[in-house]
Amino acid sequence: MIRPDLTLPIPADITAAHFIGIGGSGMSGLAGMFLDRGIRVSGSDRSDSAAMQALSARGAEVHVGHDAANLPDDLDAVVFTGAIWPENPEYLRAKERGVPVLHRSQALHWLVGGRRLVSVAGAHGKTTSTGMIVTGLRAIGADPTFVNGGVIASLGVSSGTGSDDLFVIEADESDGSFLLYDTAVALITNVDPDHLDHWGSREAFYEGFVRFADAASQAVVISSDDPGAREVAASLSHRTVVTFGTAAEADVRVSDIVTEGPVSFTLHHDGRSASGALSVPGAHNAVNAAGAVAVLLTLGYELEPALRAVEQFGGTIRRFELHGVRAGVSVYDDYAHHPTEVDAALAAARTVVGDGRLIAVHQPHTYSRTQAMYREFADVLESRADHTVVLDVYGAREDPVPGVTGALVSGAFADQDRVRFVADWQQAAEYTASIARPGDYVITLGCGDVYRIIPQVLDALGQD
Asked: What is the pLDDT of residue 464?
């Protein structure tokens, strides 16, 4: 991957920008906001997508495939994501021409300008929490600008330009870019050590979160339940720290969580209580909602209207998203790609599957994470799912590592009758369909392209 140099100067004026990887959910949203500003936009990605087609319809010049010739002659900046390779021809040509090459976080920093920024960080739950905050603010009458890492289902977009001075973003800790922003309110959902290929050590990872939080000009909202978040909170020097979660000492405390079907719960703050329910399942989403409400409280809203507003959140794309039902089998997709996320996704599914079984189709993401965490993945999958089909590793930006395949995960199961490693996708789809029965849930898990196997699974299940 290309490590961003966040010290590079950002052009004061940008009238034309080219996006490498423009089809991704985050990058396409960012490109759309540049269009909102009247900036000429071009870009490329390795395959076509609905997001690219939508940008094209708005006037962007988009290309399928990466080629140095895609770069326009008149250009103020090139924006890239960490997912591209250093050998990308457009990246190299921009460097040769002396065009400023900005990491996506730098482009976002430029867009934010001097507006009041809410930054959502954490190893898990960022996209959902950001979606809840945006939904809540809009429902309560505010009109924030926002950039999320996934599409907010009720809005059909991952970003939007609002009229208020508020700007809400999902801030990425994976490469340290969350330290770039001038944050007013920082929300930390959890601090679960990951991305140590960038940070180098667990201690550096935690210190990064401390720096991010202490730099917030207005307030820090942080989990009271997550051990890593508690460790970070203990190191903070910030004068305004608001905690949320199920812990008795939480400033915004969650109680009475009922997970059968859509989750319901009660929030308590400053001597007041309010009960609510979400349309998305899982105890973790009750806690995410508490964090979102806590952010709204720091922005000046009251508990009851804040909770009523956050209740309107309807989920984000690729978070427990139903794709179809065939032969009585429901097929879902979820972005979960870390053991903690997989655990939460399957725990939520367990609350709504009833008497059916959970069949996980797991695509390990990156060779480094698979090598470091294959035992943890196996433990979670074996404890939460009734059966697991493991695909091969989605390498993303990484080169293959000898001996690191999906078989590492499947081989770590104690009960080999409950798991099958199938590298071929068609065979995996057919095997999944062969073991599924009416009432079961099939759930694809991973942040790579595992969702693309869903049509094959549905076809293998036959007609309803």
From this structure: 54
Place of tokens 């996704």: 345
Angle at which helices 227-234 and 202-214 pack, to 10 degrees? Answer: 60
318 pLDDT higher than 80 = no
Share of the chain above pLDDT 90, in %: 69
Considering 81, 90, 135, 170, which one is annotated as catalytic? 170
pLDDT at 49: 87
Verify whether residue 95 is a known catalytic residue. Answer: no
- Give the pLDDT score at 433: 96
Among residues 137, 93, 101, 103, the alpha carbon closest in space to that of 118 is found at 137
- Known catalytic residue: 170? yes
CA distance 409 to 442: 18
Q: Active-site residue 376, yes or no?
A: no
SS3 state at 180? coil
Read off the pLDDT band of 187 (50, 70, 90): very high
Comparing C-alpha atoms, which of 8, 20, 382, 3 is closest to residue 195?
3
Which residues does the annotation place in the binding site for ATP?
A: 122-128
Contact 130, 34 (CB under 8 A): no
Which residues are paired to 45 by β-bridges? 64
SS3 of residue 61 by DSSP: strand
Q: How far is CA 121 from the centre of its chain?
A: 10
In 3D, which of 124, 126, 166 has the Cα closest to residue 148?
Answer: 126
For 367, list phi and psi in degrees, rounded to 5. Answer: -70, -35
pLDDT in tens, 357-367: 999 999 999 99
CB of 94 closer than 8 Å to CB of 14 = no
Helices (H), 140-270: 196-199, 202-214, 227-234
Contact 172, 24 (CB under 8 A): no
In DSSP terms, 360 is beta-bridged to 388, 443
Token pair of 318 as six digits: 């690729």
Q: How many CA atoms lie within 13 A of 77 on its CB side?
A: 23
Beta-bridge partners for 389: 361, 420
